[in-house]
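User: Can you write out an input/output pair for a complex, sequences first and structure second?

Assistant: Here is one pair. Inputs:
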Amino acid sequence: MTIETLSQARAHGGTQGVYRHASTATGTPMTFAVFVPEHAPGARLPVLWYLSGLTCTHANVMDKGEYRAACARHGVILVAPDTSPRGDDVPDDEGYDFGKGAGFYVDATQEPWARHFQMRSYVEDELPALIGEHFPADMDRQGITGHSMGGHGALTIALRNPGRFRSVSAFAPIVAPGAVPWGEKALGGYLGDDRATWREYDAVALIEDGARLPGMLVDQGMADQFLVEQLRPHLLAEACEAAGIPAEIRLHEGYDHSYNFISTFMADHVAWHAERLKA
Amino acid sequence: MTIETLSQARAHGGTQGVYRHASTATGTPMTFAVFVPEHAPGARLPVLWYLSGLTCTHANVMDKGEYRAACARHGVILVAPDTSPRGDDVPDDEGYDFGKGAGFYVDATQEPWARHFQMRSYVEDELPALIGEHFPADMDRQGITGHSMGGHGALTIALRNPGRFRSVSAFAPIVAPGAVPWGEKALGGYLGDDRATWREYDAVALIEDGARLPGMLVDQGMADQFLVEQLRPHLLAEACEAAGIPAEIRLHEGYDHSYNFISTFMADHVAWHAERLKA
């Protein structure tokens, strides 16, 4: 597999790059961002995945996430994939919450989405292989986090792949897509009406069905405009409580859903992951 | 004077806001960003001005500058003005380096620019009065910094106003606009052909003409694509050396002209200013 370097710049002592490759999973070119901290020649560093939310590309967290200082300090690579396939051949929806920019980290089974919207396979299988091959990454030390739709992605990917991630966290995640409007539209559209097929893409349902994690860190702003209707963190708290999963769910007065919130707590998350990735 | 709040969000414990007002200096609405750290009721905090570079608005540093964590830590307000008047009535140039997004912090005397391009008066006089009135700012403790064209702005405003700023720094500044293509186009366009009128908008010329500062911090990337033709930091180093101005000019291997560079050294600058503003 080959990758094309779109840009590289020195930042916080390391290299912030943007890369593109022809994805087998999505059948499209895919763009992603990687920050590699300064490191000794030959060293392999732990990897933190950051999955972005609705409407985002790889660039939003790269521009606004304020992760580089913390990743440099802790010696952690950060990988930020795109949120959907892109291109003129890729079908789209007029809403911001379905289609391009809204892949929901699922493998679609319904037409016209199934051809390209294979973001589960892309993020779970294809891109990790590429990262392990092209970057100084220690793939035995991976953590995963994400925001909103990407928090949903982080939690569900970790729950479906026990043992792969040493650390899991999320910013304002969609915790129960099967029970909220964003998720009902997306999972119904990509997977069809049989709600049984949705459960492997629903963190709360996965936990109810027996999936486990050794722990998680979740931050949520209390002034988040999507808190009540779309995010509903109490559903995750209740599922973790019932399953005996130690979940640190922190509620923050006054914070909204934006990168003002994410960037405020990013250094905390990177440190939390680093502690587990370097243990 | 009244201001309109366009947005406010909690970030790093403080408030990142974007505001608009009707400017007397430019005869247009002007937008600016202010970050106010968490503070005790009634407290007044020192102020750091950040002047942006070519093509930027208030938003570039707000999104990519990574200043909020440091400003919150040190209790410093950061103000980011726009770089020119905006609007359909404002004349423009087809180049990115003149007209809208390229006010160069001068009061234009030439037509058709003189009517609106009064960015010196705006940043030097009008906006400071507004900040002192509407924000918990201690205007006796001001510092100033900026990037590229904004570094030029920071240095020249500080040199023309001895005693107003307790601390002055710059990222990759244009230090001698009268001697480089960007500056020759802008100063010639806004001020006309008489180069004597350019000298009050040229940091090196101001120093040669007797202006002094108690010190300055300048960071410059050595992989900056504009280093040799437009920035020429050695001219500033030589002028400071001749004038006995203690200038800390740091050259950084591998860094370019972008916010990857700025954000890397932003926390250093905020700390450097805070030390002087809180002394």
